[in-house]
Amino acid sequence: MSKKISIKPLQDRVIVKRFEVEEKTASGIIIPDTAKEKPQEGLVVAAGPGKCLDSGTVVNLTVKVGDKVVFGKYSGSEIKIDGEEYVIMREDDIMGIMV
């Protein structure tokens, strides 16, 4: 994704762009928009500087911009930036990085 977004997340938050959902099943059945489940996978498009501990030290994030991640079904908050839908969440909500 080469489009730069106009928001920078704070602390240990990341902004994720969900992957597109398939319109058809493997057998060719077309799925209507109302029946589609939102994907739990996406691409990190922005990341904050890291988590600030009580001692004042900053712990860098494990994920970085460009990582493909898997996150929980109800993780984060959906936001709209420049007409595009994204999910903003804490790094703790991310379950893994796809390799």
Q: What does this 3D model show about the protein?
A:
The chain has 99 residues and is mainly β. The protein has one domain (13-22, 37-97): GroES chaperonin (10 Kd Chaperonin, Protein Cpn10, Chain O). Helix content is 0%, strand content 37%. A 6-stranded antiparallel β-sheet has the order 6-7-1-2-5-8, with no helix packed on it. A two-stranded antiparallel ribbon has the order 3-4. A hairpin with a 5-residue loop joins strand 3 and strand 4 (58-59). The model has no long low-confidence stretch (mean pLDDT 85).
Which structural traits does this protein have?
10 Kd Chaperonin, Protein Cpn10, Chain O, 6-stranded antiparallel β-sheet, 99 residues, single chain, two-stranded antiparallel sheet, mainly beta
